[in-house]
Amino acid sequence: MLGLGIDEADEDDDVQIEVSDVPFIAEEDFLTKYGKDFSLSFSENKEVVLTALSA
Asked: CA 13 to CA 46: how far, in whole Å?
């Protein structure tokens, strides 16, 4: 699971990462699967799109 860094980490295995200077909290299993490199952009509908770069 990946969430905004404004949320508090729930478990000991949660890690805080930054994507384009925006803090996110991720479970270690999520980062193992998708890596730690992401891009942050917006879709045509102005929705946030987070893309794993090293999956």
From this structure: 32
What is the domain count for the chain?
A: 1
Using DSSP's 3-state secondary structure scheme, residue 7 falls into coil
* Long-range pairs for 48-53: beta carbons < 8 A, 24 or more residues apart: 50/2, 50/19
Burial class (CB in 10 A: 0-12, 13-18, 19+), 26: buried
Residue 8 lies in a domain: no
pLDDT in tens, the chain (55 residues): 555 555 565 666 788 888 888 888 888 888 889 988 999 999 999 988 889 998 6
Inside any domain, residue 5:
no
Contact status, residue 16 vs residue 2, Cβ threshold 8 Å:
no
